[in-house]
Amino acid sequence: MSLTRTPGLRAAAAIAIGLIAVPAAVAAPARSPAAAVQPPPCVPQVVPTVLVMGGAFSPATRTTSTPGTTVHWQWNGASASVTSTGGLPLMRSQVKSSGTYSFTFWSAGSFPYHSTVNTSQKGVVQVRMCNVPKTAHVNTRTEFQVASAHKRGWVADIEVLRPGTSKWAWLKTDATTTFVTFTPARTGTYQLRARLRDKALKKSSAFSPASTLRVS
């Protein structure tokens, strides 16, 4: 059967020739990975009040996952104070037996305190970093919140414990930003923690509870 007698075959042949004549499409250039979008600032938590009792704070350890959270102490008839331990000029209530005292923790860290009436009466407020992702991919930038604000003379120091190691290393020191970025270079489980430091006094808080980041 000839092509001249069969329109259907003639059309099919023309399409085939056209397909052969047209060069293959050029592949679209690969797109660069999108820059990480900064997560929104964390909303301060509403935490239960710490009771100031005779010889004890209840609970002795109060943990919050959001810098910028305000902790309140409520006296329960016992004479005591809420005073920072270690020389940082943070919590400094009066000695009293009734009323309340409040302090806003603007940066991650662990903040021990005691009563000046009875130094064995101790407590600690632990402030975690916020928005640390639970998972990430290698060579992908992550971003998390270490503070709700920056105060002049104060800085944050952030440490990382990389997979396969047993020693913490500095990720960033003298941080004056509320958000910090981290790009993991290999797979595994990372730990991240931070502290607050007074540059003039050269004194710092203890480190915050560690946050875990699993990288694939």
Can you tell me about this structure?
The chain has 216 residues and is mostly beta strands. It has two domains: 78 residues, Immunoglobulin-like (Sandwich), CATH 2.60.40.420; 81 residues, Immunoglobulins (Immunoglobulin-like), CATH 2.60.40.10. It contains one helix and 16 strands. Strands 9, 11, 12, 14, 15 and 16 form a six-stranded mixed β-sheet that branches. Strands 2-1-4-6 form a four-stranded mixed β-sheet, with no helix packed on it. A four-stranded mixed β-sheet has the order 3-8-7-5, with no helix packed on it. The N and C termini lie far apart (61 Å). The N terminus is likely disordered.
CATH topological fold name of the largest domain: Immunoglobulin-like
Classify the helix fraction into a percent range: under 10%
Low-pLDDT residue spans? 1-34
Major β-sheet profile: 6 strands, mixed
Name the assembly state.
single chain
Beta-strand segment tally: 16
Number of domains: 2
CATH superfamily of the largest domain: Immunoglobulins
Distance N to C terminus:
61 Å
Residue-averaged pLDDT: 87
